[in-house]
């Protein structure tokens, strides 16, 4: 889980400061939970989707075989 501080909005982007180092990232506002605003803290959970990755790899291989 990554802690993120919502620093500000710039057009369609939210400027988030991530982790203890407060690394700045621009994040699309449309993916934020409804009702959050500047000064709010968020929790970000990023997980590897092995199943989707393997499916996409197989689809790519299948396309190459058809050539």
Molecular structure report:
It contains 1 helix and 4 strands; from the N terminus they run ββββα. It has 67 residues and is of the alpha+beta class. It has one domain. The protein has a 4-stranded antiparallel beta sheet with strand order 3-2-1-4, with no helix packed on it. Strand 2 and strand 3 form a beta hairpin. The mean pLDDT is 94. Pfam families: DUF3006. This is DUF3006 domain-containing protein.
In short:
It holds the Pfam family DUF3006. With 67 residues, the chain is of the alpha+beta class.
Strands, helices and their partners?
Blueprint: E1 2-10, E2 13-18, E3 23-28, E4 41-44, H1 50-65
Antiparallel strand pairs: 1-2, 1-4, 2-3
InterPro entries: DUF3006
Pfam families: DUF3006
Protein name: DUF3006 domain-containing protein
Key features?
67 residues; alpha+beta; 4-stranded antiparallel β-sheet; 1 helix; 4 strands; 37% strand; DUF3006 domain-containing protein; DUF3006
């Amino acid at each position: 889980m990554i802690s993120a501080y919502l620093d500000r909005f710039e057009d369609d982007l939210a400027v988030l400061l991530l982790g203890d180092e407060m690394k700045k990232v621009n994040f699309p506002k449309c993916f934020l939970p409804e009702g959050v605003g500047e000064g709010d803290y968020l929790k970000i959970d990023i997980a590897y989707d092995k199943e989707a990755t393997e499916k996409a790899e197989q689809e790519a291989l299948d396309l190459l075989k058809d050539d």
